[in-house]
Amino acid sequence: MSLQVQELSFGARLRSRAGSVADAFRRNPTMLFGVVVLALMGGLAFLAPWLGLPDPMEQTPRERLRPPSGEAPFGTDMYGRDLFSRVLHGGQVSLVVGLSVAALATSIGLFIGLISGFIRSVDAVIMRLMDALMSIPSILLAIALVALWGSSVQNVILALTIPEVPRVVRLVRSVVLMLRDQLYVQAAIACGTSTPRILIRHILPNTIPPLIVQATYICAQAVIFEAYLSFVGAGTPPEIPSWGNIMAEGRMFFFQTAGIILYPGAFLALTVFAINTFGDGLRDALDPRMQRRV
Amino acid sequence: MPMTAVADLFAKSARAVALSTPIAVAGLMSVSSPASAESVLKVVPHADLRNVDPIWTTAYITRNHGYLVFDTLFALDENLDVQPQMAAGHEVSEDGLTYTITLRDGLQFHDGAPVTAEDVVASITRWGARDGMGQKLMRVTDSIEAADEKTVVLTLSEPYGLVLQSLGKISSNVPFIMPRRLAETDPNAQIEEIIGSGPFRFVADEWQPGNQVVYEKFDGYVPRDEPASYAAGGKVAKVDRVEWRYIPDAATASQALLAGEVDYYEQPAVDLLPMLQSDPAINIETVDPLGTQGVIRFNFKYPPFDDKRARQAALWAVEQADYMYSIMGDPQYFEDFCGAYFMCGGPYETDIGSEPLREKDIEKATALLEASGYDGREVLILDPTDIPVAHGQALVTAQALREIGMNVRLVAMDWATMTSRRAVREAPEDGGWNIFPTWWLAADQLNPITNISVAASGENAWFGWPENQKIEDLRNAFARETDADKQMEIVEELQAELYDFVPYIPTGQYYQPTAFRDNVKGVLEAPVPFFWNISVE
Amino acid sequence: MYAYILRRLLATIPIMAIVAVFVFMLLHLSPGDPAVIIAGDFATEDQVDKIREQLGLNDPLYVQFGGWLFDLLRGDMGDSIYSGLPVTTLIGQRVEPTLMLTLCTMVIAISAAIPLGVIAAWKVGTWIDRAVMTLAVFGFSVPVFVIGYLLILGGSRTLGWFPVQGYTSIFESVPGFLSHITLPALTLGAVYMALIARMTRATMLEVLNEDYVRTAYAKGLATRKVLVKHALKNAMVPISTTIGLGVALLIGGVVVTESVFAIPGLGRLTVDAVLRTDYPVIQGVILVFSFTYVLLNLLIDLTYVLFDPRIRY
Questions:
Q1: Which of B368, C22, C235, C257 has the fewest beta carbons closer than 10 A?
Q2: How distant, in Å, are the alpha carbons of A102, B368, C9, C70, C288 from that of A144?
Q3: Residues in chain C closer than 8 A to B132 (CB atoms)
Q4: Which residue, among B515, B528, B468, B519, has the nearest Cα to B493 in the 3D structure?
Q5: What interface predicted TM-score (ipTM) does this complex get?
Q6: Using one digit for the tens of pLDDT, what is the confidence trace for C50-88?
Q7: DSSP state letter for B333
Q8: How far is C162 from chain A (nearest CA, A)?
């Protein structure tokens, strides 16, 4: 009986949260800005192949490093490839990396976090492992992983995911620990409900709001880290443009044609800015007490 | 464990503090007598000096380091003739089988020990175990012995035309002379100490891999009287210190030169030159007049390039200008076309057989590719993205091969990874490769013996492992031949065969400029950046 | 208190052990053969094999690990397989620039970020607050190297105030040190500043709503005194946690900053070592980084006692 009540109130809470997201848009114009910019960037990146742009990979060595013109709004790069087309197409890899890392890190972290929080016998071992993983600076670990596994989009995604997992695990675990002592969970345990069922029905839904917020931050950071990886020479393969590798390949030319870094840099910064403001807005709406986690 | 690091830091800081007082005093004194101030040449080298043993590695950066620290028995001059350097002279017996080499007076190592014939014998032996040309020489060598303190006797088992060319080899591996105790190190291990008899001394304490290398003038060096000419002649150190500062970011390095934080930038990218030229205080010179050859290498073990028609197809599909524009940019720094496998401007330049490279003919290329039985399989091109010269060649090749219908995949990696990947003999799908890009200095490519990328001895050949008996026979004939005209005939026959067999695509000949500030005087024109004869004002 | 410190110190041992095993396995189970790179262009299969033998790469993994661990416990991290220099020496050469860069960045970032955060919280909802917060989000969003290049363009090339690259030891020349460190520290500081400013604002907002702050206001204390003495002091615990955890973020930026400004620090040492699979160096540097990180966060936990007298161990 009391369980029934809890379920209801939980459903109501979810609805009210959805409502508060809508409210947040009204109250927080920067969040709206974030969503609009994000949609625009995503649209430009994924619709780029149909915009009638020059092939982003087509080289014309004799037309290299041309200044911006009507034909090539951002000019050409050192292999004579159209920079505008490359920057637009480059959004694909950058966004795919960002979104995949966010999705993978949160789902893996959620799984481990639920187990660690609820099953006491494995908790200590898992948490020591996570502490160890977390003590290795994430960017160094990612560089090492890509350098050792070889350069590919999949490897970059995996390498950026692994260091993020422990942070998600900690977050999920802390929510689980808090909920485990709640009356309705204790009641469910007393009723003999199976562990997976308790986890899925009672605990999982409560971890979602902070996780979504966390996922936006992970996504934003992954987009930047993809650029760092390219910059130090352990990034996505440069033939397929990404904002990171366009900048990494063009860094030498910065003091002559700053655009080769500034255009992709601006697209990247604007996108990350949009993701971050979107995340902040979500946080205010879903989980006002939560702070940005490092 | 980090404690040791911390302890190190403290020790270093303590030393710095202890040293700062005398330095301050010295600084004050130097104000009163500026003439006694230490002169320092600050150089941005083309790469980080990772290994310090020039016999153990072929890296150009280690070779350049070697020339500062070590001396050579013989050396190449600007007419590409071999001159004595540490040798006072040599005699060849009438049958041409015995070389008697005498050392000149006053030679000494940086630890104060005199250079003896024993040191020379040990050094040549170690070099002969590692270097390709050295191995060839050792194969025809009966014995190499010290007759007395100053006399080395080399006895051959058969006549050989390239004895002095080998001992006076200008590029990697250079037969540098080391103290015997170092030269007796296993050729497959690095020497533990850097002691040479060259004009500069290696300051081991100040070596920071990845950052800086420091050399000090060696006062005990006695230069020859002749003027410096390539590696030959008098090597006079005119600065007290040479400091190499490795700056990995090309943009930062050129800014450092503009700001006067460094004096000499060995290999600025051509694209950065207009910016450097805008400062009248910066000179830009092509120090190496012989140039560099771009190389696209095939893997002969696996399809499609195990069939020579597929390699010929690639030759018809590419155009040198595309390569040169993409890696050098400014046509001032490359030849419009160079069809000579042994370099344009070199003694063995010829144009024979080069039509497929000179002309681009997609139809012909496609037909040849089809005739080779190409089945649409994936072709892997290794793409070292951190080295613009190699990366540009990989991109251009990929585009050209796609144009004739090849299914190309570029495999991005850094240069270090590529150097291990290209050694993999397995099939491309099992971690091997089909094509990799690289480059060689003219000093290496000038003749059929030192140009190891034409060697076709199968499993023993350079990466790619081509096998062609005719090419090997011609190279051996060339080595035995002592008559210059006949050598040229052999080269012509060889090059015709090379264009049919296509061991690699010469993607063009370009010239690497060097930039230095106008306070730097006396920079020598040579295929290797030498740091003697240079003074700083 | 001492027992607590000891317990915490002991707790780092298993963590470091896991890191050691993890890093070792990661390196040795990955493809890539340093012997081939070392052997060079002309080496035969035999020569490569000899080099592999000399490096001990042919031994079974547990033998290699055991040997490494044994040496490690004696303070010997082995030698770089390229330069042949001891890893401890290589690290020793690089500690100072990285340490100084990190410290200067922290000083600059903290001394700017905390006042900004406090002001934003004090003027919450006004344009000042919005401006500070927007700037902070931007700090998270611009890649470090873009900031670095822009600063070189402005600070060195246009104004000529700062050198472009390099590092001068503070023990050699203090002015030289300061002029070299300024641009890199500002570059690296952006993200960190953003993080701390946001955290300060958020914590301050909470604290400002507490009763004792209202009481202080009611007593008629000056705003500045309330903000600093009452509110900020209580907000320092979460802020200092963020400062500690944020060091992880800094280290990511250090790697990139060092390569833009050609600073011979640990970040570049690591990247160089990773790109050429110099096993002993990678293992050593990662261990040092992890250990520092763990130790630093332990230290910060201990400083809570300073700020929050309610916490007792």
A1: C22
A2: 20, 43, 28, 24, 15
A3: 42
A4: B468
A5: 0.85
A6: 878 877 788 888 888 888 888 888 888 888 888 888 999
A7: G
A8: 16
